[in-house]
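Title: [Solved] [histone H3]-lysine(4) N-trimethyltransferase 3D structure

Original question kept below for reference.
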Amino acid sequence: MTGGSGIAGVERFESPGKGRGLRVTRAFKLGELLFCSQAYSYVLSVKERGSYCECCLTRKEHLARCGKCKKAFYCNVKCQKSDWAMHKLECSAITAFGENWCPSEMSRLVARILAKKVGQAQCTSEVLFVTHYMEDVDNEKREMNEADVAGLHRYCSKNLDLPDHKDLLTLFSQVACNGFTIEDDELSHMGTAVYPDVALINHSCLPSVIVTYNGTSAEIRAVKDMKPGDEVLISYIDLLYPTDDRNNRLRESYYFTCDCKECKSKSKDKVKIKVRKQSDPIEPDVINNMVRYARKTIREFRQDNTPLLEMCEQSLDEMGAVFDDSNVYMLHMMYQAMGVCLYMQDADGAIRYGEKILKPYCQLYPPYSLNVSSMYLKLGRLYMALEMYSKGVSALKKALAIMEVAHGKDHLYVKELRKEMTQK
Ligand SMILES: [Zn+2]
Ligand SMILES: [Zn+2]
Ligand SMILES: [Zn+2]
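Solution (posted by the thread starter after getting help):
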């Protein structure tokens, strides 16, 4: 495998129709760790500064900050020193630009990849990235890449010799395809990283493994029993949505179409687009129009990422005339609405939405899903905060059962959770 010693029980192979892939050479049981992968390069999100160490990505209180820019936080001097080669790309620019320092996370990550490359003989892209077809990069994406390149030059290129424009554009496309979003136990975004070994894993809507993050490492665990020869498969996308939506997403971001069993049978599509029960059945045209409306609204919300509660409620009203409450587009809007409530510290509102989301989530997602565990976790923590302890503990228990498989029994998040359940 890339970067060294090889991983026992896992090997590279040519996956039919998919190119390079990974498969297991021995049996793995549910919850068993297949392998860990150290990030080649990573970056902590700006909004998480102060909550995590920039160097080891440990969640901790009372971190010490960089004396120069006062914006980077560390466990101790040791972490600060080992991060300096990366932080020095930004430190003086952070001070110089002040409030106006605003590179994209992608620009920051690419700067780090380039800084690491210095002195290494091999071409970064060959070592790091699985190649995808780049020809259908659309205008919107091209503009984003151009903006990222400009941001890299402006905000993150201190002490860095940048390659020419065309090579940079290629690198940005590759990182967009092969990068991983690091998320915490509640699936809140905390950073972006490149894991060359994990990038070899192909996609399926019926994944055999889950990726979780532990400090700067990614850990890959089986979410079903695997036998020798089984391909290691993760999901690249949110599996809540119907087959057409999933494949649109895959084509947009990864330039391929999935042909897994679920994509062929579309067995869950009907429940996913469930319509309201009414005495007169709803016309197919009306349903199709509403699906179109829902997709459009979701796309618009994705562009400006803090919707107002009224906007969520308005689209819920509109769609609710046709769609059942368990319809995935309704769930999407309720999830957004719950996020807004949490942001506004409206615990009752958040609980109201969370309770509606949970049951359909359990039916529509695979048995071991981080989307489900994080929803139990959020709800459980809200109940506990409102002193509804028995409801709280029972929700947290459900989260724990999934996390013990996905994160492993010794993960910091699992330990923290066990502690929370005993403290009232
Ligand atoms: Zn600094
Ligand atoms: Zn640290
Ligand atoms: Zn599929």
